[in-house]
Amino acid sequence: MDDVLLAIGTRKGLFLGRRGGGGWDLTGPHFPMQAVYSVGIDTRRAAPRLLVGADSSHWGPSVFRSDDLGRTWHEPPAPAVRFPEGTDTSLERVWQLHPAGPAAPDVVYAGTQPGALFRSEDGGETFAFVRSLWEHPQRPEWGAGFGGQAVHTVVTDPRDADVVLAAVSSGGVYRSADGGASWAPSNTGLKAEFLPDPYPEFGQCVHKIAPDAVDPDRLYLQNHGGVYRSDDAGATWLDIGKGLPADFGFAVAAHPRRGGVAYVFPVSDGSDRYPPGYRCRVFRTEDAGASWSELSAGLPKADHYGVVLRDALRTDDADPAGVYFGNRNGEVYASADDGDSWRLVAEHLPDVLCVRAAAVG
After folding, report:
1. How far apart are CA 321 and CA 315, in angstroms?
2. CB–CB of 110/125 below 8 Å?
3. Res. 208: pLDDT tops 80
């Protein structure tokens, strides 16, 4: 079984887990009293690099990096991510740190609040402002979700490093085919049930996007109401939520090697926003959304109120593959068999904001 690093970002620090001897050993908190909304594990390098977006109520937000799996950390003397003069704004939070594919081995994207995108060409040490998205004529009309307006998801095409998707809350999906020089909304078929026109060109409250492991044109999307699939790299979207106990939720993840396999954690829409029936359950599709099955072996059977946020459901790249989720109860669960069974990794942590895992060799 592969050696796996598990990174757990919480409201009050980062916890790191290593799998060994059938169990998990956790260290932390790293960055205590800082909210960790984003973690990137860059396995394209000879030694994996950890990137952490943490924000302190006193010192503000920053991006930290480690090249020794969290034993030591480096913070640049000048902020790695910052808005340039003339934008009349400042960085509130780094929501996403996304190492691009092997076609661009040193490129890392950062999605931020306010809703903007930054690009690094040195593995996340420094970032350049992607002005084209910020200056898109539709940006002034983007709304703000309950968590604020942010670029919270970045997806890159493994075949072509110039194809990038960015999801904005609440602006929808934007696609670039020229490395970020220009952007176009890519929301055909996505519903915005809270707007007078439920199928606008932009303005959808997209919660998360995950790429399929085998088909680069296939993407899975959890919307503010609706689970969707695209078979044309995000140009159009098809609702695949039938068979789920609720089509609202925040997170979606895909299996790292099996095509057509994706995971969601449904949440009831409306006033309560708890798991449907107060039951802790992950749902998996093995046929690209044609059907869904409940995965609950090893999860709590009693009434359960833990909600999984948009970046707190993830798979690793180990063999066999692992699936992980953390919730706002401070619990983290792991599966080593594609989600068929689960075990508790940690409990009584602060709110879990994000989870990342990777084989580190």
Report:
1. 7
2. no
3. yes
Backbone angles phi, psi at 139, to 5 degrees: -60, -40
The whole-angstrom separation of Cα 262 and Cα 283 is 8
Buried b (16+ CB within 10 A) or exposed e, 45-75: eeebbbbbbbbeeeeebbbbbbbebbeebee
Q: Kindly report, residue by residue over 272-295, the tens digit of the pLDDT.
A: 899 999 999 999 999 999 999 999
The total of other beta-carbon atoms located within 10 Å of residue 142's CB is 19
- Tokens, residue 42: 């860059």
Report yes or no: 197 and 234 within 8 Å, Cβ to Cβ.
no
Residue 21 scores a pLDDT above 70: no
- Overall number of domains in the chain: 1
Model confidence pLDDT, tens digit, residues 71-84:
999 999 889 999 99
Residue 290: in which H helix or E strand, if any?
none
Contacts 24+ apart (CB under 8 A), 27-30: 27/70, 30/70, 30/73
Dihedral pair phi/psi, residue 27, rounded to 5°: -125, 155
Domain of residue 292, CATH code: 2.130.10.10
Burial of 184 (0-12, 13-18, 19+ CB in 10 A): middle
Rounded to an integer, the average pLDDT of 108-131 is: 96
- Environment class of 102 (CB within 10 Å of its CB; exposed 0-12, middle 13-18, buried 19+): exposed
Count of beta carbons in the 10 Å neighbourhood of residue 302 = 7
Task: State if pTM tops 0.85.
Answer: yes
Residues 6+ apart with CB under 8 A from 50: 5, 7, 39, 40, 41, 42, 65, 66, 67, 69, 70
- Rounded to an integer, what distance in angstroms lies between the CA atom of residue 250 and that of residue 228? 13
Domain carrying residue 258: 4-359
Q: What confidence tens digit (pLDDT) does each residue in 214-241 have?
A: 999 999 999 999 999 999 999 999 999 9
**Where are the alpha helices (H) located in the chain, listed in sequence order?**
131-134
Q: What is the Cα–Cα distance from 256 to 2, expressed in whole angstroms?
A: 14
Residue 203 DSSP code = -
